[in-house]
Amino acid sequence: MSIEREKRTIEKMIKIYCRAKHGSPKGTLCPECQELLNYVFKRLDLCPFKEEKPTCKKCTVHCYQPEKRKKIKEVMRFSGPRLLFYDPFGWLIHEIREKFVRLQSLR
Questions:
Q1: What is the model's pLDDT at position 43?
Q2: Which residues have C-beta within 8 Å of that of residue 17, sequence separation ≥ 6?
Q3: Range of the domain at 22
Q4: Within the chain, which residues score under 50 in pLDDT?
Q5: What is the structure's pLDDT at 53?
Q6: Distance (Å, rounded) from C-alpha 7 to C-alpha 42?
Q7: What is each CA distance from 70 to 56, 75, 104, in whole angstroms?
């Protein structure tokens, strides 16, 4: 998955979370969620794997601070299933990629 696709996906997930949990208008983020998104983008820009980056769940390098990692897990846990309704194609790509990475690790 490209870094840019990863950014678009996580941005959608944070927007879904922020709208549901913080009541933010559609397409906008509260200051807390905007800060989290900025942090995630910065970490993705600095990713040592670049375009070969695995999904965060499968990554061997945990580059998030513990508190931020806890928060992004919460966001992903909430928004992941809902992403199917907001971005079915993006969700499908993410799921296929997860399965592919899982198969690669079994070899």
A1: 93
A2: 33, 74, 75, 78, 79
A3: 3-106
A4: none
A5: 74
A6: 10
A7: 12, 9, 27
